[in-house]
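## retry 2 of 3
previous attempt timed out at serialization; input unchanged, resubmitting
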Amino acid sequence: MLKRPINTYFIDLVITGVSGYKDSIQKYPDNAALCRAFKYLINQTVRLYIIPPQHMYVSEKAKALWGELTSDNIRLAGHRRQIICDKLTTQKIVKTYMGARKINRELPLQKGDKFVFNDIFHEDHIIPVDYFVDELIQLDLEELTEENVEGILDGMYIAKILKEEDRRLPRTKRPHSFDKVVTDTYKGIFILPIEE
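## retry succeeded, writing output
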């Protein structure tokens, strides 16, 4: 039995995507574009998977700023979600970043204002999603079961960090180990489990 029922939809989509990827390689081995398209779709589907709550972390700086701004649950916040500043007592200037650009601007916030989560914060896959996609496509068709797919995807971890912190992370290939990423990649970014 799957632990998080909503994930059955994503798991079914992943199984379909991996099956299509394997079928395309077999039928059209020279069509690299088709293989890349399937891999891209698998990657995007994997990103929708709801990871175990105990695999969600927050940086100390992100937790502190979040606590100043809002009483909303950071565990449930992400991407383009609008967050209401309901805890501010005085105006607060925060750095915002638009998309993947390195350019930032200062945004004055006060009680009642709204901001978009990923203009200030970032959900970082601690171990890159590509690693999990590669693990999935290495499964044989008979191994492509809900339990096996869930077992692989449950290895994912998310760190909710400031966009400012994300901009300082190295863009080199990361290790495939949670502990190695935390010690080698996240130098100076201290992450803590998100409390329930």
